Amino acid sequence: MCDSAGVSQAEALKEENDSLRCQLDAYRNEVELLKQEQGKNQPMISEEDNTRAQQLSFLQQALQGMQKQLFKMREELKEREAELEKSVEDKQQLNNQVLNLKEGLLNLQNTDIVQLEKSQQDDRGGEENANQTSEATVSTVVSCSQEKEGPQEKNPLSPVNSEREALLVGIIATFLHVHPFGASIEYICSYLQRLDTKINTSEVEALLSRLPCTFRQELSGVGASLEKRWSFCGFQGIKST
User: What average pLDDT does the segment 209-237 reach?
Assistant: First the structure.
């Protein structure tokens, strides 16, 4: 809209410039005719000569005014053309900025899609690792529940007394699997109590103690900072059973 208005103003200035030029040529022609007529007449000064002299002076002044106005309009025309050219450049720059923004938005969307797909793959990988850990735990518990010597027909008692304890074993094994340096019994119980507030420390410690092939207790620290930590050893325990 601004570009069309600038073009219209520039065209109007050009037309006015042409009109003034034509008027200026007409004034010049009239001045020349007056000069020629004055030269042909007698050098006697008459009232008619005074009138013509006044007309000539008036025409010269008008001519000078027209020249100044013409010069001013030429300057305005140059300014309008410069503004119009700058407006075209600004419009082109704005179009380029819009294109850059569109490309940046498209790249950002593509990046988000790639990150989302990668996150979903990582989640699937984490679920597979947790499933593998749970399977290994169950296998270890079953192996440790059997005697190493003697016939299997004796069917010794299992160290896991109920389905609830079996669930606790799986959850603790998964928890310790992501804590390779082990965790204290208090830390383990605080995690389990988020799932069941009835869980107590002695119950969990007794359960872990009955599964030496799955969980191992180690001492960490020195002196006053000595701490007992439980760690998951099911991957090593399944080889020794």
Answer: 85
Amino acid at 120: Q
pLDDT of 28 above 80: yes
pLDDT of amino acid 153: 42
Report, as an integer, the average pLDDT of 29-52.
72
Residues in the chain: 241
Q: In Å, what is the CA distance from 214 to each residue of 48, 136, 219? A: 135, 9, 17
CB 87 within 8 A of CB 6: yes
Q: Which residues contact 49 (CB under 8 A, 6 or more apart)?
A: 38, 41
Q: Is the pLDDT of residue 12 over 70?
A: yes
Backbone angles phi, psi at 224, to 5 degrees: -65, -25
Please report which confidence band the pLDDT of residue 204 belongs to, taking 50, 70 and 90 as the band edges: very high
Task: Using the structure block, give the residue that is written with the tokens 């309009």.
Answer: 73
Check residue 221 and give left, alpha or beta (phi > 0: left; psi -120 to 50: alpha): left
For residues 62 and 51, give the distance between their C-alpha atoms in angstroms, rounded to a whole number. Answer: 16
Lowest mean pLDDT among 15-19, 113-117, 123-127, 193-197: 123-127
Rounded to whole angstroms, how far apart are CA atoms 104 and 32?
A: 70
- Residue-range domain boundaries for the chain: 1-39+55-77, 104-143+159-241
Q: Residues with Cβ < 8 Å from 41, sequence gap 6 or more?
A: 49
Q: Reply yes or no on whether the pLDDT at 1 is more than 80.
A: no
